[in-house]
Amino acid sequence: MVGLPEYTDAKRTPFRGRRERSMQDKQLRIFAAAAALFAERGFDAVGTQEIAERADVAVGTVFRYASSKAELLLMVYNGELRDAINTGVRAAAVAADPVESVNALVQAVLESSACNPATVVAYQRELLFGSATDEHRTAGLALVGELEDAIASRLATAARSAGVDGEPVLREGQRAARTVFAALSLLLAGPSTGAHPGADPVEELRGQVTQIVRGFLATLPSTIETY
Amino acid sequence: MVGLPEYTDAKRTPFRGRRERSMQDKQLRIFAAAAALFAERGFDAVGTQEIAERADVAVGTVFRYASSKAELLLMVYNGELRDAINTGVRAAAVAADPVESVNALVQAVLESSACNPATVVAYQRELLFGSATDEHRTAGLALVGELEDAIASRLATAARSAGVDGEPVLREGQRAARTVFAALSLLLAGPSTGAHPGADPVEELRGQVTQIVRGFLATLPSTIETY
DNA sequence: GCGCATAAATGAGCGTAGTCATTAATGAGT
DNA sequence: ACTCATTAATGACTACGCTCATTTATGCGC
């Protein structure tokens, strides 16, 4: 009531109008409803109607806050990926050799997908194949970029401590980082591809990372010589 | 008419009943209609109604021959993948060093996707994320398995000619092969991820393959020692 | 407070992949 | 040739994601 206009700076926003607050409230409710339903029943089994009901809004309203059902998924799980990357970066900083360091990064992401594999698979799918005009997908891809940069950074450090440096080396590092993400990506999609039924994903990924990192290191000398 | 029963062996099938022939005919028409429409307008832009009309059957009939629209896509492009793999295997046999050999294999698949990238992206999507109870998807994944085996085989040859052999080596080869497919896969999905706008996919893939193969070779000695 | 411009909320409606009760065709037995 | 069981073909219908004309709420100038 006494939220006098001269107190609100339109930037400090301690008291905004009813309107803006109610919108943020709806945004939150929709987000929470989607997150809960996806988590408990899986992306594909949840209808937009249901999300709307749980958030106590009309269907049309859901689509004022998210341009598609997929966008809701991206919105929710980008947060998880963000956390996983942060965790991974911290773990990677501790690890000694480059293989362990890179492995720590991707294992963190792999672990974050332990619960609700079906929904993680859907997230993967939307991240890779969603529509290009999709705000939150772009944000998700930016996170992937961050992950790759973090990996590339560890590789660059390793190269430097092996006495190698320079722009071509960094490019090779980015390349290896991208391959690491590709391996992770396929593994996460894995449940649906039924890849290696018997294999332990953690060990499989570790093995692939080991090969890729060693491959990067093995490429270093010739990189210097041939460029 | 004169398609006497004693002539038809039910296995040689030179003359089957009208029924079976008309079914095969419809199957062919539906397949051809789908292939043509996907090629000329892209998977997502084609409706099942359209496919049905072009094949001169009712919509319901389409779904008697393919359990979903995605299945039609898989059906059509599995053939392309089959051809690409065969081409790749031939090219790989000629190449001298293992990097070139493996590269030849995957480049063949990459090239086969040159025309109609949108539909290839959709094929990739359905292969990786399609429903598990899907005959033609399983067939597609089997082809992927073949590709991986072909790659693994080249790697095993390389290892042998480096004086290394044994079951652990084969496992590492399979692992590297899987990574190679992961890289290819991500690159094919690439157009939609807007990965590296400026990069040449052919060179990018070659670079990744180089790293992976060298990584495999670098892992060999330690494989012997540590196992 | 009052009226008005602007913006948000709504839910019936739309397009499309996929279903299923009904109809049509086939061929084996007589 | 006729009957009838079996199986394919059909298209109206459903489910679901999403849209958009209409309705409702908000805040601002008076």
TrEMBL record, chains A, B:
All copies of domain HTH tetR-type, residue ranges: 24-84
InterPro entries documented for this protein: Homeodomain-like_sf, HTH-type_TetR-like_transc_reg, HTH_TetR
One Pfam family hit: TetR_N
Residues of the DNA-binding region: 47-66
Transmembrane segments: none
Keyword line: DNA-binding, Transcription, Transcription regulation
UniProt-recorded name of the protein: TetR/AcrR family transcriptional regulator
Organism whose genome encodes this protein: Cryobacterium glucosi
Lineage summary: Bacteria, Bacillati, Actinomycetota, Actinomycetes, Micrococcales
